[in-house]
Design goal:
The chain is α+β, with helices and mostly antiparallel strands. It has a domain of 134 residues. The strands form two sheets. A three-stranded antiparallel β-sheet has the order 3-4-5, with no helix packed on it. A two-stranded antiparallel sheet has the order 1-2. The longest helix is centred in the N-terminal third of the chain and has 22 residues. The protein is elongated, with a radius of gyration of 27 Å.
Length: 194
């Protein structure tokens, strides 16, 4: 009887150990870090699918409507382009865009799409920390104490990207063709009565 009881205790203990071992998750292998080339390719994919071209690349009219002008990719609002007249009567209820979607007008005033090429007039001199601050905290040029990024920049969405994705986007943008273009400063909203 004593021998049967000890066998029962031993078998039960072995069963519990076996069950506990089955419930352990296998060790996940650490993913190797991406090479610079892989980072740039991943960044290109992200920037293209997230829609950075939509606002930061001027357009040309094609057979099916506006198309990205890839010779001016990511240069933002063209510095030499005059802002068209604004019908201010629609501003209380609408936001307006210029024909290239590189300038927007709304209750915040007028905002211009930034140059995000690798040129010094773009993000060429930025550190990754500045880029991350701009994307995660919505700060102009990623500088501490600067003004907030203005609509329609959807930085709140980009704030949710992984560190790896932001680093890949930065690597890609730093690899782009530099285009010298000093984008105009934003225009604050008119004071009431003006």
């Amino acid at each position: 009887m004593k021998r049967g009881f000890l066998f029962y205790i031993g078998a039960t203990a072995a069963l519990f150990i076996l069950l506990a071992a089955c419930n352990q998750k296998p060790e996940q292998e650490a993913k190797p870090a991406m090479t610079q080339e892989e980072m740039i390719a991943r960044g290109d994919y992200l920037v293209s699918t997230i829609g950075c071209d939509d606002c930061h690349t001027p357009k040309v009219m094609g057979p099916k409507g506006p198309e990205f002008d890839m010779s001016r990719r990511f240069m933002g609002y063209p510095a030499d382009q005059e802002l068209p007249p604004i019908d201010e009567s629609v501003l209380p209820n609408w936001a307006l865009f210029n024909h290239e979607l590189t300038a927007a007008v709304g209750p915040w005033g007028v905002s211009f799409s930034a140059n995000i090429t690798s040129d010094e007039t773009g993000i060429g001199t930025w550190s990754y920390e500045q880029f991350e601050r701009a994307m995660r905290q919505g700060l102009y040029k990623g500088m501490e104490g600067s003004r907030p990024l203005l609509p329609p920049m959807p930085w709140q969405n980009f704030a949710k990207l992984s560190d790896e994705d932001l680093r890949a986007m930065f690597a890609f943008l730093k690899s782009t063709t530099p285009i010298r273009n000093v984008v105009p400063a934003n225009i604050p909203p008119a004071a009431p009565g003006n």
